[in-house]
Amino acid sequence: MLNKPTDFIASLAKGLQVIESFRAETPRLSIAQVAEKTGLDRATARRCLLTLHRLGYADYDGKFFQLTPRILRLGMGALAALPLPQLVQPWLDQLSEQIGQSSSVSILDETEIVYLARAAQRRVMSIGLMPGSRLPAHCTSMGRVLLAALPEAEMLALLERSDLTPRTPRALTDPAEIAARIAQVRDQGFAIIDQEVEMGLRSIAVPLYNVHGQVVAALNTGLPATQAEPEELARDYLPALLKVQAGLRRVLH
């Protein structure tokens, strides 16, 4: 808990901003690009990037910086310490083997979902997904499940803060329409996304409850659109997802 201004380390905060500016869609960034993304001046961005490079957290080719696998040390330790990934991974492995599709578990972090665990049968997205990967909540099946679990006012506030720039021509961009879909998810207990995150990808998700009946995460499976129509997802995959949901509800705290 911060009690006075001296408890806040501004240089650490700036360094974390620089690290967070690297995303799956922008893995290589110049000093100018990092400065633009973070709002830092070029000199500060340069010092942060060169520090990361010197410590082995970033590669530098003279123009572009790219994070190295060493950066995973900063996050994987925290993920590994969470009981949720450890508990759900065997269930995901079994589910994916049973249905022949990839499955994932994520949590909500502000306007994004964060992948905690994943069992991949095949690559279904152009970007590789792994624990720690992030996607917008408003246009993903797991995100809509998690948003549906929030109080209405909190959900609407998160939508207000979300970047609704469409990722595909099928993506919803009207906050009222997205809120209506989330309300539908709340009523039916699952979410289906039809090529809103990436063309050619459909997914279905359900909430994961703890023993107290609280939503603590979301579970989904995603597959190529050529394999199933949207209305077939609930018929073919929802029973298996609900079975995992029921099983985990007895062990999640």
From TrEMBL:
PROSITE patterns in alphabetical order? HTH_ICLR (PS51077), ICLR_ED (PS51078)
According to its UniProt entry, the protein's GO biological process terms are: 3,4-dihydroxybenzoate metabolic process; negative regulation of DNA-templated transcription; positive regulation of DNA-templated transcription
Entry protein name: IclR family transcriptional regulator
Keywords annotated in UniProt: DNA-binding, Transcription, Transcription regulation
One GO MF term attached to the UniProt entry = DNA binding
- Domain (IclR-ED): residue spans on this chain: 70-253
Under Pfam families, the record lists: HTH_IclR (PF09339), IclR_C (PF01614)
> What species was this sequence derived from?
Alloyangia pacifica
Indicate the segments forming the HTH iclR-type domain, all copies. Answer: 9-69
